[in-house]
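Need a sequence for this fold. Nothing fancy.
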């Protein structure tokens, strides 16, 4: 394994999930910012080749703590994990030690309270004295306190949805994405406690000067990558009189570039669209007078 760089290092270290849902998208996002790595044989540490930015491959639960301890500078982790650990620190009187630096737009899910399908839901008050199974005790306890409900929190590290069937709990509080796991366990969601996605997590304060510049470069590239993630460049020609009908069909476009085509009664237009360019929209544009429509992927962008 490549030896860890000693403290006071001028390289940047980013922790990402080793395996699991966020592992691949996190790597892909960093790679789209121009990073490449040499992997160690044990695949726990990746030495940055194109930039002095190394990766630490870990369990997602460890990422906020690694940032808090200064072992790594930044991390990519679910907002749910960060908020839970932040809540646990708050409950124990510890100061906040990490914060969300950027929302990354993948790993969407939410933390929901769910009860057996056959039961009626009226209000949180009906949970008084009940047992609720969860892997998110801090977030659940904070919600119960806000609602003024006293219930028993049953801590499980996984397979939470099965707890009611096993007689371990009366309700559950767990992550939901498609809702398939709840449905398969005859549970229904009744309250959303928390909305989550993957985030870039970092310390509360800015990084020291040596690594500050590297972080700025990284954030600049990351912001560019996030901005163009769903963006497409739209090219077409049109007659000037079609513009009033065409432009309202491009509400998500940055001010389109309009050029006169030499020797023709035509304009050439170029628009960077940030929303989804559906076939329907392209057909609407064609009907409104767009000619020779072309949709191009955007590879990179620096604001
Ligand atoms: N069903 C889901 N759909 C979408 N995103 C999810 C879903 N479940 C979890 N996530 C998000 O992905 C993150 C990682 O989920 P994963 O299941 O890979 O974690 P894990 O089993 O705790 O992994 P690790 O082995 O690293 O501890 C979660 O913390 C959450 O932010
Ligand atoms: O709404 P759905 O799309 O069904 O997703 C929700 C499920 O996904 C996660 O579990 P995961 O599959 O990661 O299993 P684990 O909890 O055992 O890690 C989460 O804990 C839920 O159980
Ligand atoms: Mg985990």
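Here you go.
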């Amino acid at each position: 394994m490549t030896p860890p760089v000693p403290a006071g290092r001028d390289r940047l270290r980013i922790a990402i999930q080793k395996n699991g849902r966020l592992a691949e998208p996190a790597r892909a996002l960093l790679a789209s910012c121009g990073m490449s790595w040499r992997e160690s044989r044990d695949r726990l540490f990746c030495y940055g080749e194109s930039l002095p930015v190394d990766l630490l491959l870990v369990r997602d639960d460890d990422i906020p703590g690694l940032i808090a301890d200064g072992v790594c500078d930044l991390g990519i982790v679910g907002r749910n994990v960060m908020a839970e650990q932040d809540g646990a620190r708050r409950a124990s009187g510890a100061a906040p030690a990490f914060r969300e630096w950027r929302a990354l737009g993948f790993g969407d899910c939410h933390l929901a309270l769910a009860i057996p399908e056959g039961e009626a839901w009226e209000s949180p008050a009906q949970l008084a004295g009940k047992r609720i199974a969860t892997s998110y005790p801090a977030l659940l306890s904070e919600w119960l306190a806000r609602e003024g409900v006293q219930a028993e929190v049953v801590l499980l590290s996984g397979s939470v949805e099965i707890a009611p069937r096993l007689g371990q709990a009366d309700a559950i509080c767990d992550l939901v994405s498609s809702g398939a796991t709840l449905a398969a366990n005859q549970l229904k969601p009744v309250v959303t406690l928390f909305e989550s996605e993957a985030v870039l997590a970092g310390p509360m304060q800015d990084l020291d000067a040596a690594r500050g510049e590297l972080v700025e470069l990284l954030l600049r590239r990351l912001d560019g990558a996030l901005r163009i993630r769903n963006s497409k460049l739209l090219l077409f020609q049109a007659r000037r009189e079609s513009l009033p009908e065409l432009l309202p069909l491009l509400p998500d476009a940055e001010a389109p570039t309009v050029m006169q085509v030499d020797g023709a009664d035509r304009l050439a237009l170029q628009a960077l669209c940030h929303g989804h360019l559906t076939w329907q929209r392209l057909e609407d544009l064609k009907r409104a007078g767009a000619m020779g429509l072309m949709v191009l992927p955007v590879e990179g962008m620096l604001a």
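For context: The CA atoms of residues 55 and 198 lie 17 Å apart.
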